[in-house]
Amino acid sequence: MADETTDNDTPAEVLADEARDSVVERLTEVLGDGVVESHVQPGADVWVRVDGNRWQDAARALHTMDFAYFGFLSIIDWAIAPEGRYEDADFDTGDDGESISSVPEATGVAGGDTRFQAFARVHSITEGLGVTLKADIDDSMTIGTWTGVYPGADWHEREAWEMFGVTFAGHPRLRNLYLPSGFEGHPLRKDYPLLARVVKPWPGIVDMEEIPEHLEAQLEAEVMAAFEAEEGGA
Amino acid sequence: MTATSDQQRHAYVASQAAEARVNVELDTGDMILNIGPQHPATHGTLRIATQLDGELVVKADPIPGYMHRGYEKLTEVRTYRQITTLVNRIDWVGNFANEVPFVLAAERLMEVEAPPRAQWIRTILFEMSRIANISLFLGDMGVQLGALTPVFFAFRDRERVLNQIEAVTGGRFHPNFDRIGGLKDDLPKGWIAETKDCMETMRNFCDEVEDLLLGNPVFQARCRGIGVIPTDVALGYGLSGANLRASGVDWDLRRDVDSPLPYDQIDWKVWTHTDGDSFARFWVRLQETREATLIVDKLLDGLPSGPIMAKVPRIIKVPAGEAYISTENPLGEMGYYIVSKGDVGPFRVKIRTPSFNNIAIVSWVLRGVFVPDVITILGSLYFVLGDIDR
Amino acid sequence: MIADLSFWIFSDYAVSTAIKLAVVMLIIPLTSLILVYVFLFKMMAFMQSRLGPMEAGPHGSLQLIAEALKFLQKEDIHPDNADKHVFALAPIIVLMSTFLLYVVLPVGPDLVVEDLDTGIFYAMAVSSLSALGVLMAGWASANKYALLGGLRAAGQLIAYELPLVLAVVGVVIQAETLSLQGIVHAQANWEIFGIGSGMPFIVTQGIGFAIFMVAAQAELTQTPFDMPVAETELVGGFHIEYTGFRFLLFFMAEFGTAFAFASIASVLFLGGWSLPFVDPTANWLNIVGPGVMLAKILFLSMIIFWVRFTYPRLREDQLQKFAWKLLIPAALANIVFTGVFKVAF
C-alpha cells in the first residue's frame, strides 16, 4: 500500500513525480510567466498558481492538454473570521472595502498575495491525475469565466459569485443559484457572521481533557488485549 | 324608445364582443411549467422551471437551493471530529460513504494512516452504502416510469443492508463511524457470515430488477435513446460516477486513483456502457450494485486482522496544508478540499459533491425532450438533494 | 290528479325503475369496493411483499369504508382561478358515464336493467362520455399539470376508442346482434364445428379479445397507459386539484368503470352469465348467473390490475403509435377475417 503518507514520512524516498512535474512544465510552456508558482507533492497532488489575468488561458491550456474532466471551481477567502474559533484573532471587521485585498498571512500551498483566491480542479482521464489551479483575485473582484471551456463551471461560478461576491467576467447567466434573489451579503466570506456563533460563541474544545500518561498506556494495553482476544474474530 | 335604444346598444355591444372574440388569436406561445419544488420526481425540493411548447421542453432551468444548509460555512467553525457528523447528511442515502473522503483527506494532511483492518472495514462499509444507495435508485427508477413494484422490492432488501450497517456503526442513516486514524469500533461477532448472506439477497434483488425492468419492452422504450450525453459533454460538465461511465468513459476513482482503500488488492471490474442514454445509466448502476456485492464478499474473505485505530493524539490538530481527496461515492466523485491552518478545525473545506455537477447538466440535456422524458432523465441521472444543496 | 299521480307512482314501470335505479346506485360503490380491496389493496400488497391494510376490519376489509368516510369529511376545496361550475360538474359527468354503462349489463337471463337492442353500441357511446368529464376537469382546474393531463386523456381516449369499437365489431358480426343479452345467448347456443354447446367467443375472437383488453386498459387509464394520471410526472394529472368528495367520485368512477369494462369483456368474449352445456333459458341461472359473471369479471379485472402493477408507463407519443399503427390495423384485419369466415361458414 504505497501512498504519499509513507513517502512523506521517509524523505529519502521522495522522488520526483515525473508525471506531475511534466504538467507544470507543459503549462509553463504555454503560459510563460503566467504561471506564478507551483507546488508538487510527489505521488499525491500538484498545485499551479497562475496570474489572475491568465485564468482563462490556463483553462484552455489544460483543456488542450487533455485535462477534459472538470472537477470543481471555488474561492478561498484567506481572511480570518471575526467569530468562531478565530475570535481572538486580530481582524479588521470594516466593511469599507479596503480590507478586501489585505491578506492576513500569505498562506496556502503555492502561495497567494490577495485575500481572495480562485481555485479549481481538473482531471485528466488519460493520464489519471488531477491538478489544482489557483489564481489571485485583485481588488476588482473579477476573474475570467471558465464556462466557455468547461461548461460545468457554470454552476460553480454562480455559487462562487453569490457566496464570495467574485464576478466572473463573460459568464452568460450570473445569477443566484442557492440564495434567494434579494439576498444581501456573501455568506462564505469570512467576515459574514455565522449567526449561530454570534448568538452562542465558540465554546472551545469541551470534553477533551488530556488523559494522564500512565493511564493512557494502560488503556492502550487493554485495547490491544481485547484485539488479541478477538483476533480474526467478528 | 329607451327600450329600443337599450336593445340596440346591447346588440351592438354583443356584436362587437363577438367580433373581438373572432379576431383574438388564441395564445399558442410557450407555457412555463414549474416541476417542483414539490414534485415526486425531484426527490426533495429541486425546482425545474421548464418552458414547454405543447409537451416539448424548449428550455429547462434547474433551481436548487431550497434546502441549502451551508455546510461549507459550518465546517469553518467545527472541529474535525464534529465535521464527520455534518458530512453524513450530505448524501443521506449513501451515508457512510460521505465520511470516507473527508477522513482520508484529513489523514493525508496529518500524515497518519489507518491500520489495514480499518481500511478494509471502511471499504466494506463504503461498498455497502453504495449498495444501499443504488438499490434504492434501481427501484425508484421504476416508480419514476410508472412501475410501482420494484421500489418495494428495493426497500425490502435494502433493509437488510441497512441492518448490517447499523449492526456495525449503530446508525442506519448517519453512522458517524469514521475517525481520523481509523474506526470507532471493530465488527461485531457473526457479522461476516450475515453480511455474506445479505449480499446474496442483494444479488437476487439485482436479478429481480433485471427481470422486472431491464428486459421490459416498455421500460426500454422509455429509456433507450433518451437523454443521450456524449463523452465530451459529460467530461466538460464534470459528470461522475455511473453517469460518466454510461457515456463510455472508463474512469473509476476506486481503480484509477491511488488511495489507501484496498481496492487494488482484490479483483473486480469497472462497468461501462457506450450509449450514454438513460438506459445505459440504469444498466451501469445495476451492474455496479452486483459488482459491489462481489467486492464486499471478496473483502470479507481477505479481511486482515489487527488494530482498527492508529495512534492519533487526543486533540486532533491538523498541520497546515491543503489536500484534496475524492472517492467514488455511490452518486459519483465526492471530494473534500481541506485547507488547514494547523488548527483543531479546517480553515476552509470545499465540498465537491457529485450531484451538483450531475444536475448542472440538466439544462443542457433537457432540450427538445417531452415532459415524461424529463422524469426519465432526472431519474436516470440520479441525484440526492442533500448532495446538491449541501 | 292525486289519483293519477299515485297510480303512476305505484305502476309497474315506476316500481321497477325505482328498483333498477337503487340497484345501479348500490352496485357502483360496491364494485369499486370489491376491486379496490381485492386488487388495489391486497393483490398489489402481496405482489410487492407487503401485507396491505390490516387494521380496519378483518384483514383490513373495511379500510375502504374508512377511507370513504375520511374523504366525505374533507373540505370541498376548489382553486381560486378554477371555472367553478365546470370544476364541480366534471367528476359528476365522469361518474355518470360509469352509471350509464351499468344500464345494459346483463347478469342473468332476466337480470338486466334495460336490454337495449343496440346495447353494445350504447355502452361504447356512453363510456366515451367520461373523456368529456376528464377534459373538463383538466381545463377547469386552472392548473398546468391538470391541463396537460386532461389533454393527454382526451387524445388517448380518442385513440383507444377506435380499436375498442373495432374489436367489438368482430363479436357483433359473429353474434348477429348488438344487444348484450343477445350476444350472451348467441354464445350459449354457439357450437364450433359441431363441437360443444355454449362456447365463448374468445375461441374465435382471440385477437379481438386481446385488442379489447389492451384498449380497455388505455380507456381506463391504467398503467402502462396511465399518462393522464402519471403520479410521478403530472402528479395526478386531471384530478390534481380535487379533494374530498369530488376526488372520491373520480376514484369510484375509475374502479367502477374498470368493473364495467371487465363485465363488458366477459359478456362479449367469455359468455357473460352463461355456462357451457347449460340451457341459457333455465330459470335458476337468474340465481347462479350473477355469480358466474362475477367470477369472470374478477378474473378479467385481475389481468387488468396485474398489468397495472407490473408495467412501467409508456410515453404519450408511443401510446398513440401503438394505437394507430398496431391495434387499429389488427382490429380491422380481425373484422375482415371474421366477416369472411361468417360468410364462408
Q: What kind of sheet is the major sheet of chain B?
A: 3 strands, antiparallel
Order of helices and strands of chain C: HHHHHHHHHHHH
Which structural class is indicated by helix and strand composition of chain C? Answer: mainly alpha
> What is the number of helices of chain B?
16
Kindly report the average pLDDT value of chain C.
82
Order of helices and strands of chain B: HEEEHHHHHEEHHHHHHEEEHHHH
Secondary structure blueprint with pairings:
The complex is a heterotrimer of chains A (234), B (390) and C (345).
Chain A: H1 4-9, H2 18-31, E1 35-41, E2 45-50, H3 55-64, E3 69-77, E4 116-124, E5 129-137, E6 142-144, H4 153-164, E7 167-169, H5 195-199, H6 213-229
Parallel strand pairs in A: 2-5, 6-7
Antiparallel strand pairs in A: 1-2, 3-4, 4-5
Chain B: H1 2-23, E1 31-35, E2 47-53, E3 56-63, H2 71-74, H3 80-87, H4 95-110, H5 116-144, H6 149-169, E4 178-179, E5 182-183, H7 191-214, H8 217-223, H9 231-236, H10 242-246, H11 253-256, H12 278-301, E6 321-329, E7 332-340, E8 348-352, H13 354-360, H14 362-365, H15 371-381, H16 385-388
Antiparallel strand pairs in B: 1-2, 2-3, 4-5, 6-7, 7-8
Helix pairs in contact in B: 3-4, 4-5, 5-6, 5-7, 5-12, 5-15, 6-7, 7-12, 12-15
Chain C: H1 2-9, H2 12-47, H3 63-73, H4 84-101, H5 119-127, H6 129-140, H7 144-175, H8 180-188, H9 206-219, H10 244-269, H11 285-310, H12 316-344
Write a structural description:
- The complex is a heterotrimer of chains A (234), B (390) and C (345).
- With 234 residues, chain A is an alpha/beta fold.
- Helices cover 27% and strands 20% of the residues of chain A.
- Chain A is globular, with a radius of gyration of 22 Å.
- In chain B, strand 2 and strand 3 (56-63) form a beta hairpin.
- Chain B has a single domain, classed as Cytochrome-c3 Hydrogenase, chain B (Orthogonal Bundle), CATH 1.10.645.10.
- The termini of chain B are far apart.
- By secondary structure, chain C is mainly alpha-helical.
- The chains are: A alpha/beta (234), B alpha+beta (390), C mainly alpha (345).
- Chains in contact: A-B, B-C.
- Chains A and B meet through helix 1, strand 3, helix 4 and helix 6 of A and helix 2, helix 9, strand 6, strand 7 and strand 8 of B.
Short description:
The complex is a heterotrimer of chains A (234), B (390) and C (345). Chain A is α/β, with parallel strands linked by helices and 234 residues long.
